[in-house]
């Protein structure tokens, strides 16, 4: 570690540009990866060309010892991505990403966390009313709970993404993966009702705006998730997971219960692999009971 210190900011800035250009990463992902990359640079305080596996491993273990499982997984992913970037650009030795230990976690081991049908009805009812804020809230909730959009997807929606003539919605999500989803009648009605009172502005065509002056668009998914949290509190619902992602889980489990095949659910949710979608099959306890085989000892 005796080499001359490298200036972290240019390296991190280049890394952010690379993430956007070559990985199609969202702004939220870029911020997360850049934060962890900057932390590594500041801690090791040396030219990456001189980094050793033990240096990287020690830094990771120190961070992990003070973090929860969710944070550890994010740190693992971001540090490996940064180290691969440095290796590809010739700034550190190849294979240094292997010094970041694998986190012992069984993929898809937990149960999906979703709202019951009764809770969904209460959530939608909590958006009743003709006020602009209530109309907007209803459109947001229905989009998330019917189509399983991520909060970030909702924040990025533009007026031109709604194709009224074909009854479809254009969604561009992670890694710039764009799809067209069918627009359910109740969702379309809710959006149309919101647009009747939405503030008209020439500056942007973002669909959902804040209701407090100067009524700017939501910058990212956090704003949409905060709206959902407030509605849940208004409906006196204690969700299994905070924020808007509970509605994505709910949409998936509802589709499954209505007989929609897993591959079709995966298309709506824009999953890259069927294994991710199969995670929701565990939520249908009634169906699992039908296929479960009895233990001989219990006969």
Query: From the coordinates shown, what is the CATH architecture of the largest domain?
Result: Orthogonal Bundle
CATH class of the largest domain: Mainly Alpha
* End-to-end distance: 67 Å
Roughly how much helix do the residues carry, as a percent range?
Answer: 40-55%
Indicate the low-confidence ranges by residue numbers.
1-7
Tally of contiguous helical segments:
13
Task: Please render the helix and strand layout as text.
Blueprint: H1 8-23, H2 27-44, H3 53-64, H4 69-88, H5 117-125, H6 132-147, H7 151-156, E1 162-163, E2 168-172, E3 178-182, H8 185-197, H9 221-234, H10 245-257, H11 262-269, H12 274-278, H13 285-291
Antiparallel strand pairs: 1-2, 2-3
Please, could you describe this protein's structure?
It is a single chain. With 299 residues, the chain is mainly alpha-helical. Helix content is 53%, strand content 4%. The protein has 13 helices and three strands; from the N terminus they run αααααααβββαααααα. The chain has helices spanning 8-23, 27-44, 53-64, 69-88, 117-125, 132-147, 151-156, 185-197, 221-234, 245-257, 262-269, 274-278, 285-291; strands at residues 162-163, 168-172, 178-182. A hairpin with a 4-residue loop joins strand 1 and strand 2 (168-172). Helix 1 runs antiparallel to helix 2, helix 5 packs antiparallel against helix 6 (132-147) and helix 6 (132-147) runs antiparallel to helix 8 (185-197). It is globular, with a radius of gyration of 23 Å.
């Amino acid at each position: 570690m005796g080499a001359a210190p490298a200036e972290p900011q240019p390296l991190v800035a280049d890394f952010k540009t690379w993430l956007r250009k070559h990985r199609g990463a969202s702004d939220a992902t870029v911020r997360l990866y850049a934060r962890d990359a900057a932390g590594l640079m500041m801690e090791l305080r040396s030219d990456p060309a001189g980094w050793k596996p033990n240096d990287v491993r020690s830094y990771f273990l120190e961070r992990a010892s003070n973090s929860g499982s969710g944070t550890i997984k994010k740190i693992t992913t971001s540090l490996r991505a940064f180290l691969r970037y440095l290796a590809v650009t010739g700034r550190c030795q190849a294979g240094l990403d292997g010094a970041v230990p694998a986190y012992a976690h069984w993929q898809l081991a937990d149960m999906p966390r979703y709202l019951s049908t009764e809770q969904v009805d209460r959530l939608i009812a909590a958006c009743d009313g003709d006020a602009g804020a209530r109309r907007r809230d209803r459109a947001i909730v229905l989009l998330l709970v019917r189509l399983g959009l991520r909060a970030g997807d909702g924040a990025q929606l533009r007026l031109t993404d709604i194709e009224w003539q074909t009854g479809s919605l254009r969604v561009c999500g992670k890694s710039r993966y764009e799809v067209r989803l069918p627009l359910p009648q109740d969702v379309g009605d809710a959006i149309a009702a919101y647009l009747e009172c939405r503030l008209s502005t020439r500056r942007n065509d973002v669909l959902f705006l804040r209701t407090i002056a100067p009524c700017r668009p939501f910058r990212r998914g956090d704003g949409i998730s905060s709206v959902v949290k407030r509605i849940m509190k208004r409906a006196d619902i204690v969700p299994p997971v905070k924020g808007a992602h509970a509605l994505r889980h709910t949409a998936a489990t509802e589709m499954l219960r209505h007989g929609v095949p897993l591959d079709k659910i995966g298309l709506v949710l824009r999953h890259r692999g069927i294994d991710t979608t199969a995670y929701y099959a565990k939520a249908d306890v009634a169906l699992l009971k039908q296929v479960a085989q009895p233990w001989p000892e219990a006969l």
